[in-house]
């Protein structure tokens, strides 16, 4: 997951902030380096506010130790005031409108607001507290109003339209033409052509959507943190790996439950329990808690919130002349229309179901051998899949963990980036961080020239939302002829170290680390003039190409030989484990593809509604799943009430992971044909994909790299869906 693309005229992170998503879906005491909890609305004089002063830190990174929660509200107020002054100067310029004094000037405006919003939204996702959440509730609707004030400024739009209408007469470079097209289109999509009454309604919708997005995210976080499974008997731990048991014991000690074991809904705790625990009733209990968090009738019920969001989106889309929210969202995607998305999903869905049915038969056979009566349930699938995989391929993923220590995996991922692009990552312990677990690296070209700063933050905490993502504290762009270097962060929720072992990752966590580094490279290696076009400012169904292609190197024997070494002995990953891992690559892909596609289809169902009347969320989802024929034992990856992606930047866009996987599977074939580290191929990928951001049509960029449009066959082969 990465940062949602935003509307260009306010700030590059504002859209993500307004919907309550981090730029990508109980609070512990804050360490000294984190923003301290304080009254959210306390006044702070601008002169004393570190967010409003030049950041006198190495490379201009945020001065985290000086930033407190009470600094944000006054910083937002001052930054919005300055931004409006900048926009007013553009709108009232007595000179005739030109590309430079209107379109480019608008892109350059709002730098301070961008900085404040970036720090706030990143901390709110990775290291939040009650005070930051209160700031979000206060400032989010005000930011929505600020955004609309600019988007619906008639004087400003008149100048933009004047430049747009003369575009054929202007001598503009490719990036200038692209910026003009994006700015004009985004203003129209924000309502610039609406009547005065329609504009007022648009403002009200946007403010309500912004507040609802914050509420939805807060509910998911609270529901996730609010559950724990406490185990008091050693017998109830049967089947679990010693590493998992040790982690649960550490969690219990942290909760003041010495001598017990605690499991939570955070993925490093949840999935190993579901895969290993022999106690079926406990598997049922924790899986049901996961599936129903923030569900109907719970203390953090999101069903009404999502229903209202969906209804408002229908109304907003139809105000702008689109029949559905999906039509509105997809206009600027590679897929273009809901029909384009359905075409791909419908091609994959029956194949995935057929493979999943075969897999289910294998699982049920082992279940019967155990004397467990049918049916196979959602809390059984991962448990029996692990056992069938071990029996069928002599492969147990837990046997890999001792070879996947976090530090070595990170070094391996950096090594791949070095072999491909010649860049280096050097740890900088002198840089400010927002939590002691965060590490900072300076990224440099082969000649030692500076590229940017890269932060990593890899373990779950109560103040961090679930999942993994990549974001920026500062985007790359060219300011007054000088390159502004990016500050990028990768965040995850990977397995923690225990008292006697380092953090040992699962294969999925390894691939996630490589994935997020791919997003990071997209942001770090960007070389664009305009801030709103740089890095990951690309269509949602293109943004996952740079991240997903990196996963291919994670499993490569050549790369495994570099980083996969036993944490204690240093011995390399045995050849027989690599071979069994390769044999099992397509195992359980029917399940994985089906649960993903079900979530994508559910997303499309929500966002192809044509009636702005709120629906019953539970009934709507049930009908959607019945129509698609989802097997009982495979729930969608996300139920509607905690599907944060579709409340954030992936609304009508969750399909984009598999769309981009078509691209990445096809693109990786070029490396397989010419060599995994062929510098010419890597340079072509860097030049045509990573550096270009959103400066050209994504298919144009892809064809320039590959020489043709992508073929779906490599994806089908990878997932075993031929």
Features of this protein?
722 residues; mainly alpha; five-stranded mixed β-sheet; two-stranded antiparallel ribbon; 28 helices; 9 strands; disordered N terminus
What layout of secondary structure does this protein have?
Layout: H1 14-18, H2 72-91, H3 99-108, H4 111-126, H5 130-151, H6 154-165, H7 174-190, H8 196-225, E1 229-231, H9 242-254, E2 261-263, H10 267-276, H11 280-292, H12 303-319, H13 325-330, H14 338-369, H15 378-393, H16 406-421, E3 424-427, E4 439-444, E5 450-457, E6 469-474, E7 477-479, E8 482-484, E9 487-491, H17 507-524, H18 540-543, H19 545-554, H20 557-563, H21 575-583, H22 589-607, H23 617-628, H24 644-647, H25 656-674, H26 679-690, H27 698-706, H28 713-718
Parallel strand pairs: 5-9
Antiparallel strand pairs: 1-2, 3-4, 4-5, 6-9, 7-8
Helix pairs in contact: 2-3, 2-4, 2-5, 2-6, 5-8, 6-7, 8-12, 10-15, 14-15, 14-22, 16-17, 16-20, 17-19, 19-25, 22-23, 26-27
């Amino acid at each position: 997951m990465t940062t949602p693309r935003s509307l260009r005229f306010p700030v590059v992170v504002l859209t993500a902030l307004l919907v309550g998503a981090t730029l990508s879906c109980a609070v512990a005491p804050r360490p000294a380096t984190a923003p301290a909890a304080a009254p959210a609305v306390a006044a702070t004089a601008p002169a004393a506010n570190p967010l409003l002063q030049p950041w006198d830190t190495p490379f201009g990174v945020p001065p985290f130790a000086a930033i407190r929660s009470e600094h944000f509200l006054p910083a937002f107020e001052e930054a919005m005031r300055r931004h409006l002054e900048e926009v007013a100067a553009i709108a009232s310029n007595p000179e005739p409108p030109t590309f430079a004094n209107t379109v480019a000037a608008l892109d350059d405006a709002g730098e301070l607001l961008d900085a404040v919003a970036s720090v706030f939204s990143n901390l709110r996702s990775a290291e939040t507290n009650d005070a930051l959440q209160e700031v979000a509730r206060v400032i989010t609707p005000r930011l929505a109003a600020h955004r609309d004030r600019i988007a619906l400024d008639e004087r400003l739009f008149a100048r933009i339209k004047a430049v747009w209408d003369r575009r054929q007469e202007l001598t503009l470079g490719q990036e200038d033409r692209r910026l003009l097209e994006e700015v004009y289109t985004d203003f129209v999509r924000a309502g610039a052509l609406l009547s005065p009454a329609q504009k007022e309604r648009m403002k009200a919708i946007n403010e309500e959507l912004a507040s609802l997005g914050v509420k939805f995210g807060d509910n998911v976080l609270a529901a996730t943190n609010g559950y724990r499974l406490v185990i008091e008997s050693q017998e109830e731990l049967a089947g679990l790996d010693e590493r998992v048991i040790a982690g649960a014991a550490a969690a219990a000690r942290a909760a003041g439950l010495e001598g017990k074991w605690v499991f939570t809904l955070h993925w490093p705790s949840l999935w190993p329990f579901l895969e290993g625990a022999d106690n079926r009733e406990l598997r049922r209990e924790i899986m049901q808690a996961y599936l129903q968090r923030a569900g109907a009738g719970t203390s953090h019920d999101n069903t009404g919130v999502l229903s209202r969001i969906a209804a408002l989106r229908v109304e907003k889309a139809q105000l702008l002349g689109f029949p559905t929210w999906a039509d509105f969202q997809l206009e600027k995607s590679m897929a273009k229309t809901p029909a384009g998305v359905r075409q791909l999903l419908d091609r994959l869905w029956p194949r995935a179901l057929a493979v999943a049915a075969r897999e289910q038969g294998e699982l049920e056979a082992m279940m019967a051998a155990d004397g467990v009566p049918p049916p196979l349930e959602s809390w059984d699938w991962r448990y029996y899949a692990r056992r069938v995989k071990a029996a069928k391929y002599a492969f147990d993923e837990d046997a890999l963990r001792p070879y996947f220590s976090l530090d070595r995996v990170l070094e391996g991922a950096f090594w791949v980036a070095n072999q491909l692009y010649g860049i280096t990552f050097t740890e900088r312990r002198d840089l400010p961080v927002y939590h002691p677990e965060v590490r900072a690296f300076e990224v440099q070209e082969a000649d030692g020239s500076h590229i940017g700063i890269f932060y990593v933050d890899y373990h779950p905490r109560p103040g961090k939302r679930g999942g993994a993502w990549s974001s920026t504290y500062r985007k790359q762009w060219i300011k007054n002829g000088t390159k502004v270097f990016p500050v990028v962060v990768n965040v995850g929720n990977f397995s923690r170290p225990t008292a006697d072992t380092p953090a040992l990752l699962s294969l999925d966590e390894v691939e996630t680390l490589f994935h997020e580094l791919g997003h990071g490279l997209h942001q770090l290696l960007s070389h664009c003039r305009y801030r709103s076009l740089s890095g990951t400012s690309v269509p949602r169904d293109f943004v996952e190409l740079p991240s997903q292609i990196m996963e291919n190197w994670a499993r490569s024997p050549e790369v495994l030989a570099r980083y996969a070494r036993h944490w204690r002995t240093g011995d390399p990953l045995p050849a027989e484990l690599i071979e069994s891992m390769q044999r099992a690559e397509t195992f359980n892909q029917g399940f994985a593809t089906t649960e993903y596609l079900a979530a994508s289809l559910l997303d499309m169902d929500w966002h192809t509604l044509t009636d702005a009347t709120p629906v019953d969320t539970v009934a709507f989802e049930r009908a959607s799943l019945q129509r698609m024929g989802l097997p009982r034992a495979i729930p969608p990856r996300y139920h509607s009430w905690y599907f944060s992606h579709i409340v954030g930047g992936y609304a009508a866009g969750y399909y984009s992971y598999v769309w981009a996987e078509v691209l990445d599977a096809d693109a990786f074939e070029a490396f397989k044909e010419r060599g995994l580290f062929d510098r010419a191929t890597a340079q072509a990928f860097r030049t045509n994909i990573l550096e270009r951001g959103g400066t050209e049509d994504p298919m144009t960029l892809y064809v320039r790299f590959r020489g043709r449009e992508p073929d779906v066959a490599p994806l089908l082969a990878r997932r075993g869906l031929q």
